[in-house]
Amino acid sequence: MEIAATRPLAGTIPASAPRIWTGRIITAVSVLFLLLDAGNHLMKTPPVVEAFVRLGVPVGLAGPIGALEIACLVVYLVPRTALLGAILLTGYLGGAVAIQLRAGSPLFAETLFPVYFGALVWVGLLLRRPRLWAVLTAPRRD
To answer: Over the stretch 16-73, which tens digit does the pLDDT of each residue have?
Structure first.
């Protein structure tokens, strides 16, 4: 089956090899950290138990939260569903920010930490997918 040539979208950034590899590396770093985090939740390591107690979250939720994180990561890592995965991870990390805010955690050290990784998830995706960047930044046609 032959794929017809399509006209590039306005604002499309050329897909250079260094750009794509940078996106892959950023994605790998963020995914590895999030996998480590999910594994710690599933194993209920002492730092996770301590954090859950400090944040007022039942420790019994650590396993389901870790499983949810892994499910979001799987969706993110499948190329056809990567955009949906980035959206799901954004929601997951947003919940982490909300819990940290409610607990009164330090802003830059703990509360915004999930935001940093959410940014890495999106930067990695946008660097790997130049057409996605073009779609997200296309002018509105009202």
So the answer is: 889 899 999 999 999 999 999 999 999 999 999 999 999 999 999 999 999 999 999 9
Predicted TM-score (pTM) of this structure: 0.84
Structure-token pair, residue 53: 């107690």
Domain edges within the chain: 17-131
Quote the tokens at residue 8. Answer: 């590039």
Helix axes 46-55, 82-103, angle to 10 degrees: 60
Give the contacts of 61 (CB within 8 A, at least 6 positions apart): 52
Radius of gyration of the chain (CA): 18
Q: Checking phi first, is residue 104 left (phi over 0); if not, alpha (psi -120 to 50) or beta?
A: left
